[in-house]
Specification:
- The protein is mostly helical and about 100 residues long.
- It has one domain.
- The protein has three helices and no strands.
- Helix 1 packs across helix 2.
- The longest helix is centred in the middle third of the chain and has 44 residues.
- The protein is elongated, with a radius of gyration of 27 Å.
- The N and C termini lie far apart (about 65 Å).
- About 0% of the residues are buried.
Length: about 100
Amino acid sequence: MNISAYNQKQKIKAVLICLLIAAVMLLSSLYVLIHADHDCSGTDCTVCMNIQQCENNIKMIFSGIAVGQIITSAAFVFVLIVLFYTVCASVQTPVDQKVRMND
């Protein structure tokens, strides 16, 4: 199999997964909004159980996003530290600058 075709398939799979996650989040939110003021039949109410499951879906999706944001933020701080060290904190000697020292 061609590597570019494999990469193209991976990209398509990633886009489809993102669309499915967005659809689950959207449909769960809509279900909660539509059935928020339903007539509850008491214990073992199927609508309440469905609302609880939809809320759990939304919480799981957002908790994954929070973890991703934490990792991204940590990586960003690491890159900033490395850039600061290489640009500002590195000491350049005349040899590094290839400066000829005539006495």
